């Protein structure tokens, strides 16, 4: 087994290895309101989890409410974050057949998928509206807050998914390339 010689570098060279001589502009215009909301909710959840860990293991006296709040924040993050995926065309899909079809057939198929998505998100919004009416006044276990806050947030996520799906449908009808095709160009991260 041969080893490639590694040129040793100093600690100072290592510290400056990631510096870039050119300042690059940061484009925040690609982010929408749900992106920033999910970011804030994520850090709120991270703070709750850290607080739970710290009080349980450092103080040996756990705060009971941190687990419930963190779990509820996770639910809200998932459904509001799903609206981000709809906007960017990044939801998981089985696209084996899709890749082998001709471009006109793919475009028709994408419009059909857009319509099915709109109907699904709108139907889920309606179901959640009915569900919140039934159980929205229940209280959380450890915090005296209505569970409806979480359910209304999930409802808002589905309404936002419906609106983003409508927006994608309009874009797919107007532009030369579909939202899905544009998302494929961005690679696996979508950003």
Topology diagram in text:
Layout: H1 11-15, H2 33-58, H3 65-88, H4 96-100, H5 103-135, H6 148-174, H7 179-186
As residue ranges, the low-confidence spans are none
Q: Please provide the ordered H/E string of secondary-structure elements.
A: HHHHHHH
Radius of gyration: 23 Å
The count of DSSP E runs of length 2 or more, i.e. the number of strands, is 0
Mass-distribution shape: flat
Portion in helices: 55-70%
Q: Name the assembly state.
A: single chain
How many helices in DSSP terms? 7
Average pLDDT reading: 86
| Share of residues in strands | under 5%
- Based on helices, strands and strand pairing, what is the structural class? mainly alpha
Ends apart, CA distance between termini: 41 Å
Largest sheet: none
Descriptive overview:
The chain has about 190 residues and is mainly alpha-helical. It contains 7 helices and no strands. α2 packs antiparallel against α3 (about 65-90), α3 packs parallel to α6 (about 150-175) and α5 (about 105-135) runs antiparallel to α6. The mean pLDDT is about 85.
In short:
The protein is mainly α and 191 residues long.
Characteristic terms for this protein:
mainly alpha, flat, 191 residues, 0% strand, 67% helix
